[in-house]
Amino acid sequence: MGAVLLMKLRSILTMLAAAAAVLAIALRVPSIAEPLGIDQSLWASAVRGMARHQLLYRDVWEQRPPGIYFTYLAGFRIFGWTPAAVAWMDILASGVTTLLLFAIVRRLSDLTTGAIAAALYAVLTMPGWLYRHDGFLERSVCETFIVVCVAVAAWCAVEWRTVVSLSLCDTRGRLPGWAYASAAGVGFFGGAAVAFKPNAGLYLPAILLWMWFYRPPSMVVPEAMRVLVVALFAAAIPPVLTLVWLWRLDLLADARVAVLDFNRFYVSQGLTIKGYAVDFSKAIWLRMKTDPLWLAGGIGSVAVVWQFLRQRAIDAFAGLAVCWGGAAALVIVVNGARLFNTYFIQAFAPLVVLATWLIVERARASIPARFISVATAALMLTLLLQRHYVTRVYEWAQADIGVMRGTLDRTSYLDRFGGYGNNRGYSARANEELANYIRNHTTPDDRIYLFGINGAGVYFLSDRLTAHRFLRVNFFVPSEFPNPAFTLDAVVADLAVRPARYLIFEQLHSSSEMGRMVDALQSRGEITRLLGAYRFETTIEDFSLFRLTEPVVPKSR
Description:
Elements: H1 2-26, H2 38-51, H3 67-79, H4 84-108, H5 111-124, H6 127-130, H7 142-166, H8 177-194, H9 203-213, H10 221-235, H11 237-248, H12 252-268, H13 273-290, H14 292-311, H15 316-334, H16 348-361, H17 367-386, H18 389-405, H19 410-414, H20 428-440, E1 447-451, H21 458-462, E2 465-466, H22 488-497, E3 502-506, H23 513-519, H24 525-530, E4 534-540, E5 543-548
Parallel strand pairs: 1-2, 1-3
Antiparallel strand pairs: 3-5, 4-5
Helix pairs in contact: 1-5, 2-3, 3-4, 4-5, 4-7, 5-16, 7-8, 7-9, 8-9, 8-10, 9-15, 13-14, 14-16, 14-17, 15-16
């Protein structure tokens, strides 16, 4: 009788967890009404140019590897060339990651535990809960898709272990084909993550390390080595295909400057070991005090160490969380001195695995472990209540639904994203007004150029091509990167040869050296001479528009 009751309770818990996961993903859907964030608008403008036959790194320049542009291009072609496509990609990535975590944890434990893991991820990574402005600045970034790639690799690794454990080697001591296919999946998706950021290559060794340590005892070393070789060969496929694509378009040299040279320069800026160690520890401690997953992850880490000290071993469930989470921490560190929220996105999936192990799997071991599990769950719930989880998620969903139904004025709605005329930089309302003005005062063949950062989405929103490859002014102001093409003089010279129909100057209202230099651009001699062929036309919030007074006829140098 007791066993039957326990089975019913587990079934109910499984259904509740599954329902919570589905509801949390569904509540993200209204975010399709929201505008593009700063980085998202940049990538959208780049791929809009690519769709109109401009070349990445040569005609539209940004320092990320091609992966994010391939993804955005596919997303816009599937969901349409609107800002909603970026939200749909983020929702899809969240849903896929949720399913993958369910599949991974189910293999490592059971159905109920897998459902709990899925619920924890879907519920506790709600953008409206984690970030300001419903997370529109953290949506569909490189880390979003790196998480998906690594989660697929981890699922393949878990499947490989299951297949190997249940299978017998053939007469030559070799594993069945599905085991090799799973290993190839680990490598392929580990390699795919590198197409988004080179430092994501740290995940593959971590997953392979887990496979090595948790392989069946009966597996001989030569066979295990063959599996690793298969994974490594498969890992080379995505980077090689990317390089071939760049080579066919004669873009290898341009890509090297962007992805390798510029990123090395970018990461090294302002980086000191001591300063970074302090900043990183503060960032982790802040998250442990305010985020249930980071809190559970911290407690889970202590529990893993305790298990290792007592048993001189860590079970496969916790081991995966340690390998995956350790790699995520290293990737965050390698990103450099700037600890943006987006860098920490990739830690949520392994934190969920660790939290699920602590709250569910380890709780079955003993009464003290059960007490720690209950206490951890209670602390997580307390954080959710203290920081008004339901209110924050509901308010953003209500606003999104209101603007889609027409019950909330769109202008007022856009003002929620940066305000308007408040000297604060980004303004979704100003960006939309600028794009509408440009679209109404130009033809599709006209080119424009923005000396700015926050308004880089104007190319996408107005469907006009950039007159110069640098989509952001901070790529060449100040001129610190040691390359003669990355200077204001070089950009002005290019624009003099191939003039834009409109030149747009954005006031950044930033106290940084770069911000002050950008705000003072119109007083620079190079710019004054360039504007000799233009007339001032209008101001839209922080944007000053100058229109070319002569026909656009490219000059020869």
